[in-house]
Design a protein that fits this description.
4-stranded antiparallel β-sheet, globular, binds zinc ion, alpha+beta, 45% helix
């Protein structure tokens, strides 16, 4: 599945403040980030690739009896990490399942 910008996502984002929206629209890459685990250090080109990488991190953490608190986040043009909308999160895991 190819993840592309669609109008449903835009609608969700339009409910947010303009500054966030402007930053969000510059998101071209994604990364995996958690408060405890930190960032994975990889710029993923698709939300699905980030989800796959996150799954691997979760498996690795489980294998040593822990868990990963990372989640998939967008990287804005200025380098700021942005939380994804529910739809984007859903797309990430849908892409992962295919
Ligand atoms: Zn990653």
């Amino acid at each position: 599945m190819k993840n592309t910008w669609n109008s449903d996502k835009v609608e969700v984002i339009e409910q947010r403040n303009a500054e966030y929206k402007a930053a969000y629209e510059t998101v071209k890459t994604y990364t995996c980030s958690g408060d405890v685990r930190g960032e994975c250090g990889v710029k993923h080109r698709t939300v699905g690739a980030a989800a796959r990488h996150l799954s691997k991190d979760q498996r690795d953490c489980r294998s040593i009896g822990g868990y990963s608190d990372r989640r998939v986040v967008g990287i804005a043009a200025d380098g700021e990490l942005l939380n994804l909308s529910q739809d984007d999160q859903h797309d990430a895991w849908s892409a992962e399942a295919e």
